[in-house]
Design a protein that fits this description.
With 159 residues, the protein is mainly α. It is built from 7 helices and 2 strands; from the N terminus they run αααααββαα. The two termini are 30 Å apart. This is Protein pbdc1.
Length: 159
């Protein structure tokens, strides 16, 4: 995982990722570590929804709070098939910012970068993946789980 660096390399990487961003500048090695961590998170999550019925998953201690606030703020958002502008347009960012910030101190690493699938019926791929904050990921995936959209991944793995 860390280029053959073993436990010590992984430990050093974990420590490096815990330091404040100001400590780095534009270190490309850090970007690679963040990308690897985000990819590993995506892979673990996809394996989880492929092996356990998603409607039974609890992603955080505050799933109910995230879900109710998300659906109150984003009633019309189609979580089954997101578009990049649902998260990245100027208008979307203005709506997402206060939503995300309300979870500061509640959801660990709430603004940590995470990979999110655009179309929940497809796997992670370059075309189907967008970079989102951790709380955006939780909001969308909790909604997909509760609303039955992630059942496709679970059913596909069982056939």
């Amino acid at each position: 995982m860390f280029g053959g660096q073993g436990v010590e390399g992984a430990s050093a990487a974990a420590h490096a990722l815990s330091l404040p961003a100001e400590a780095y500048g534009n270190d490309p090695r850090l970007e690679v570590m963040w990308a690897m961590k985000a990819y590993n998170h995506a892979e673990v999550y996809f394996n989880l929804i492929s092996s356990v019925d998603p409607k039974f998953l609890k992603l955080t201690k505050v799933d109910d709070q995230i879900y109710s606030s998300f659906r109150e703020t984003f009633k019309e958002l189609d979580v089954k098939q997101l578009k990049e502008e649902d998260l990245k347009s100027d208008e979307a960012k203005e709506r997402w910012r206060p939503f995300c910030n309300q979870f500061e101190g509640i959801v660990e690493d709430f603004n940590y970068g995470t990979l999110l699938r655009l179309d929940c019926e497809k796997d992670y791929s370059e075309e189907n993946t967008i970079f989102a904050t951790r709380v955006q990921f939780f909001a969308v995936e909790i909604a997909r789980n509760r609303e039955g959209y992630n059942n496709a991944a679970f059913k596909r793995s069982k056939s």
